[in-house]
User: Which sequence fits this backbone?
């Protein structure tokens, strides 16, 4: 599903440049649930941004579902993001004046899906995250955990190849975190490929594989026995 | 354009920024309001000027004799110039293609009597063509005709006020009224839109009055209209020729300004037209400058809204919004605010004008109004203005990098 080879990324900070990713080689197969771990500054978010086509690497190759991701202009990147990727952010990033359902329907809007179908699909995904009754509520009327579930429904609505979650539980208490992880696990059980960036060990243990990043290189890449979040819920 | 979601978003962003949207919208509405009002005022001035002249044909030339100021051709200065019937015939012969209508004017005051009612009025003895030159509107009966002229008939066309004074409720047509003791048959009643005073006048055939006053050939003035296909230069050239030839004929020094006065409406008209076109140009420039302030205001609010929504736009981009879609959203919103507030300004201005415009009727300012074309132009200006106002913010929005926008700090 994801193939990256010798990925380098550096940021210019004034006169000196900061080398964030120093040759990452990494691949993810379909249906995997991968945790990317590392302390802050390890490059994990940068890696996720590059995987999410929100940022571009200086060097290296990146294939997503067999498609080489390079030389993207804004329009093309937008199309690929829409087609391949679903995003879940730490701060949810719901649009505050749109109801839960409208938020979920938004990626479908950019896929130019008709209004009626969009609403049906949005409701379906809201139902999957258990928030069907909250469809008409604004994000401000939802709790943090509910917001993140709406965001996950939104990410799933476009039926992406890969779900990218950047600290999805970073802004949640532990109980809600487990609820969210339970949801992510269930989505993964259906065969979806998911990458989770986190710095919390317990969250990482709920994935099937943990990739440790340190100072821009992968220091550890191991399969783990998945801890089911449902037992904590 | 008719995408429900886009409109929903536009309304959301307007609703969230009600006061700001109102304030900036107000500046555009105000700009359009002032633009329309300025143009209407210029139009009102124009109407005012034209109404000053509208009781005369706009291609008319008046010839009035005076006293010479210079000795010439053996005559002393201060000679009184007298026009005669021959002069009219002479003009007709000399300028067969240049004039359209021509009439003499022979003034006399008269005291008129009908039954017990009397009044003192001025009589203008004229040719039938005078009706066209003066734009006299006959409401009852008829004007002087050629038959009256040939037979020196004692007939009269009286003004509305004269008819009111003398005949009260009675129908004046066909009745006989005495002018200085002589019976004249009333053949018509006229009104004058230009001023009420003119309706205290009486028209009679010039031949009749000349016969009454000692079989004279004298006339006081000559009025004519020039060929209406003439433009300003040709009209002025014609009145120049007319002046030269008449001065030669009447033995007035060519440079003598007071012996013969030729008044050409074309001149006055060209002055007014250029004056009002300068005024409308000033109106348009000032109006547009005010509008520019409004446009900058809209641009400003849009930049602000974009800045506020940076994160949202970043999210949209992450979800797959293309730059073109973002641009469309911002432009449409800007055009919508501009057009809506502009239309409100336009509407208020037009309603105001249609309410108070017709009531304004002073000599220099009559019925200020705007034409349909001004309204259409203003609309186009508004939409273009909206696009211009939205352009920079839209580009800014399209260039938002999702990664920067989504950074949590």
Assistant:
């Amino acid at each position: 599903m994801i193939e990256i080879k010798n990925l380098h990324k550096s940021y210019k900070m004034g006169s000196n440049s900061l080398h964030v990713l120093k040759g990452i080689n990494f691949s993810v197969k379909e249906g995997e649930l991968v945790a990317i771990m590392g302390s802050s500054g390890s490059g994990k978010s940068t890696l996720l941004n590059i995987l999410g086509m929100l940022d571009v690497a200086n060097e290296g190759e990146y294939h997503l579902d067999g498609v080489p991701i390079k030389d993207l202009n804004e329009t093309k990147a937008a199309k690929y993001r829409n087609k391949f990727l679903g995003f879940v952010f730490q701060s949810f990033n719901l649009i505050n004046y749109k109801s839960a359902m409208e938020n979920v329907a938004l990626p479908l809007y950019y896929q130019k899906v008709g209004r009626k179908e969009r609403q049906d699909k949005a409701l379906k995904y809201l139902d999957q995250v258990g928030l069907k009754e909250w469809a008409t509520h604004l994000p401000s009327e939802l709790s943090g955990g509910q917001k993140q579930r709406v965001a996950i429904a939104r990410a799933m609505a476009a039926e992406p190849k890969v779900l990218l979650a950047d600290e999805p539980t970073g802004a949640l208490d532990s109980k809600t975190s487990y609820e969210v992880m339970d949801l992510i696990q269930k989505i993964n059980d259906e065969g979806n490929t998911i990458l989770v960036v986190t710095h919390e060990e317990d969250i990482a243990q709920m994935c099937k594989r943990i990739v440790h990043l340190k100072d821009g290189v992968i220091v550890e890449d191991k399969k783990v026995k998945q801890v089911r979040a449902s037992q904590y819920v | 354009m008719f995408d429900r979601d886009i409109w929903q978003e536009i309304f959301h962003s307007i609703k969230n920024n009600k006061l700001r949207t109102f304030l900036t919208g107000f500046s555009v509405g105000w700009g359009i309001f002032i633009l329309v009002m300025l143009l209407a005022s210029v139009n009102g001035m124009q109407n005012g000027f034209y109404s000053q002249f509208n009781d005369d044909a706009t291609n008319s030339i008046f010839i009035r004799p005076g006293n010479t100021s210079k000795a010439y051709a053996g005559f002393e200065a201060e000679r009184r110039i007298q026009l005669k019937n021959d002069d009219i015939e002479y003009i007709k012969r000399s300028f067969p293609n240049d004039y359209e209508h021509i009439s003499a004017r022979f003034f006399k005051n008269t005291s008129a009597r009908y039954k017990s009612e009397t009044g003192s009025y001025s009589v203008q003895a004229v040719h039938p063509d005078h009706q066209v030159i003066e734009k006299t509107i006959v409401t009852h009966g008829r004007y002087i005709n050629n038959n009256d002229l040939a037979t020196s008939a004692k007939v009269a066309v009286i003004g509305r006020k004269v008819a009111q004074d003398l005949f009260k409720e009675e129908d004046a047509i066909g009745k006989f009224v005495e002018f200085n003791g002589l019976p004249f048959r009333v053949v018509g009643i006229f009104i004058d839109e230009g001023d009420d005073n003119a309706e205290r006048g009486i028209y009679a055939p010039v031949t009749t009055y000349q016969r009454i006053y000692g079989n004279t050939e004298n006339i006081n003035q000559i009025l004519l209209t020039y060929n209406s296909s003439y433009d300003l230069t040709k009209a002025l050239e014609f009145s120049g020729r007319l002046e030269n030839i008449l001065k030669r004929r009447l033995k007035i020094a060519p440079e003598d300004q007071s012996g013969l006065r030729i008044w050409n409406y074309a001149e006055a008209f060209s002055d007014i037209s250029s004056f009002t076109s300068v005024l409308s140009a000033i109106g348009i420039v000032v109006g547009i400058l005010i509008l520019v302030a409004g446009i900058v205001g809209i641009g400003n609010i849009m930049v602000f809204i974009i800045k506020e929504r940076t994160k949202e736009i970043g999210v949209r981009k992450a979800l797959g919004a293309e730059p073109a879609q973002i641009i469309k959203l911002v432009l449409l919103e800007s055009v919508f605010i501009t057009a809506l507030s502009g239309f409100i300004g336009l509407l208020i201005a037009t309603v105001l004008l249609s309410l108070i415009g017709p009531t304004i009727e002073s000599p220099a300012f009559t019925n200020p109004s705007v034409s349909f074309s001004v309204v259409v132009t203003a609309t186009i200006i508004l939409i273009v203005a909206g696009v211009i106002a939205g352009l920079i913010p839209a580009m800014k929005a399209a260039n938002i990098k999702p990664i920067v926008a989504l950074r949590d700090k």
Summary: The mean pLDDT of chain B is 85. Chain B is about 55% helix and 20% strand.
